[in-house]
């Protein structure tokens, strides 16, 4: 059996390498070592590799069994869990703007963004307006503008190319990374690779490409579940003369797990154990994927047992991942048992461990015990952070213990710990009126925390559920005013909400706008709107036919009336003629009698 598994794995590797050589001949790939693998490559893993040779670079095919959580989630912003990870990363880290302190620079960025948004449907007009705006280009300006229009890749790319042509300015690595991240997010991978080739400095002789550049591409491929191209990009490190050590390989594993390709990451780790030996960190990456990204205690325990079987040493990160998994699953008993076991073997808890246990206690409505543990962690020199407080606030809000949640919030402010957007999201979920929502939005802004896309998505969904469409459109307009361009998730939530509220024409309008921006609609919404549109056309056709029939019936009745009048007229004319003839005949007979002629004489 072991030999059969080995053959299957080697055959899969051969297919991977052959297709890689054909498709990416410009990449210099290293070979896979001859391996003996205990577990064969899964069918999903093989499918990911076998599909990339035929799929388009611009629109890679997402396997149907992989669900994208951003459109399928409810009001939650953290995949169905109250637990917040300390190392949560924003998907747009590379496109993050700056806090502009210069008012002039802020106004210049606003001017550019307004031009890009107003002329989004006319690229020629957009280019002309940008040329005439008279704004001086700087690195800070470019980063801020790209951050604000990151969901409209054409507008961002138009501005990026225009900025590169301005005298006295040249893009740095950071601007290139921002633009490449935007293109990758919108699946414009060919264009992104063109920019990377430009960064190589063929003309200038100075290369701006860094390992981070390729890591951005790896992450974007992982985001669309194109595992094959993600691995090919990793092997492109050699072409750019970068190191391909264990750290780079672990970055690849992290990228795969970050976007829920955890099973692929685990199989890749086993297949490459001869080149990149198995160690605690590699296992922790996969374990964290099963624990915090997928949220499967069963798979997490399987990996845990595998680590123990192979003699891989557990560290505080391993325990933190498992505790977080049990905490999210609401298994307080397992959390406390594992916490005691960790302390028993002499592993000192870190902040992540404490946060997971505090969250489990608060979720189990043991609020006093959670506060006591927070005091204990402070006594041991581990200061609570915003994640610690969020681990308390979120469960309290879900349990409708609003006053206690506010008390924790006030205590956090006294410690000079600034609330994050996730803190406010916890309070937004328990609000029940539009007035409360807008009041909290105003308070949030005054405290220096600006709403993000996830905030608007949550509130738009909430107002659609409340059937307050005026507030829905108010928030939608506010997004653009605040420099946030709606992304795919925003459109899907808005269209779905309008559809369920019977605003079918408005839903179709935003559906068309979404497709014009080359954002892929959700299949279910696409099907619903197409069905409605076809039914509408049929109904309009039937209405037109009915009107035509009514017109024909009206014309028929009119013709009948005219014919009747015509017949009456036709009958009337002979009658009058007969009367005149009778009179004439009578007069003639009278004359004949008077003159003595017989009427019947010839």
UniProtKB/TrEMBL annotation:
Stated name of the protein: PROP1-like PPR domain-containing protein
Keywords attached to this entry: Repeat
Record has Lipoprotein as a keyword: no
PPR repeats: 279-314, 315-349, 350-384, 385-419, 452-486, 487-521
Protein's UniProt keywords contain Plastid: no
The organism's taxonomic lineage, starting at the top: Eukaryota, Viridiplantae, Streptophyta, Embryophyta, Tracheophyta
Positions of the UniProt region annotated as Disordered: 55-94, 541-578
Listed PROSITE patterns: PPR
Residue stretches making up the PROP1-like PPR domain: 307-461
Feature: compositional bias, Acidic residues: 71-94
InterPro entries to which the protein is assigned, alphabetical: PPR-containing_protein, PPR_rpt, PROP1-like_PPR_dom
Residue stretches of biased makeup (Polar residues): 541-567
